[in-house]
Specification:
The chain is an alpha/beta fold. Helix content is about 35%, strand content about 10%. The protein has a domain of about 180 residues: Lysozyme-like (3-Layer(aba) Sandwich), CATH 3.40.80. It has a 5-stranded mixed sheet with strand order 3-2-4-1-5, with helices on one face. A hairpin with a 5-residue loop joins strand 2 and strand 3.
Length: about 280
Amino acid sequence: MQRKSVGKAWIIVPALSLVAGVAAALLLKDTLPMPHAALGSEVQTVTLAPSTPSAQPISTPTATATPSTTPSPTATPVPPTPTSTATFTPTPTSTPITLPAPELHGPPQKPPVISRAEWGSVDTTEGYIPHTLDRITVHHDGSEFYGGAAARMRSLQSWSRRVRGWVDIPYHFLIDQEGNIYEGRPLEFVGDTATEYDPTGHALITVMGNYNIQEINQAQLSAVVDLASWICHEYSIPPQLIRGHRDYAATSCPGVNLYAYLANGYIANAVQERLRFEEQ
């Protein structure tokens, strides 16, 4: 009997131990965190984290990051004031010329003029604009000149028509080094200009040459006075309205050495003397 009891106890004791272990495991299940649950939380955190860095404000470089070599203007640009008309003071380089007093025997006559046909003008009859003369404006043609006036006239007319698109030579009369007067555009039609003034009403007298460089001579000055005197008388123009190109536009024309005789009133006074024939 005793051996039989011992055998049963051998079987029962391990069985009870097994049962006790299972019970203990069941109790611990509710009190300890399970490893897969913690890992699942980390995985979720990892997978939800953005694959790129979180968005941060991106600073766009401003214009000051790379300085410009040209500063921006702070005001509306103002066109430069032409110094030729604003601050130019005539300072002729030659000794002033004094013309002999004229012998007055009646009204001023038209001086001898070399005609268009004589210097070889191209005939043109269309495109002229008529006007009424009320003033005289003196020019130089701006290019040094020492002879060959007829060829110069033809060249000027060709350039005027071909390059500038003008109907004819722009001036009404031109004067060479010897004081010879050449017929340009017919006087009853408006001349042309490459500057910003309206030549309507202007009788345009040009002395060939550049009188910022060259000096005016007595023959040329006498021709200007003779021609201006006749025009003033013929068209009832006051001598005070004999002026220079630079009095109407931003230019140094007719050059310092010629303009001096306009600025000091010499040409206007000489013409006025020619018109005193009625007082004789």
